[in-house]
Amino acid sequence: RKSSLKLVKNEILEFNARKKPEGFYLTSRHLRSVGRVVQRLHSSTPYCFLHADSESLAFYYTKLIVRKIELLGENLILRFNPLRKEKLIDVLNNEIENFSLDKALEATRPDKKRRIILIENEEELISEDWQDIELLCTGLPGINLGLICNASGINQEILAANKLMKDKRISHAFFNSPTNSELRILSVVARQSSNNAKILKILEQLGLRYNFANGSEITTNLSDEGRFDDFLRSAESDIKTDAKKSWSKRLIPTKKYILL
Question: Whole-prediction pTM value?
Answer without folding.
Answer: 0.78
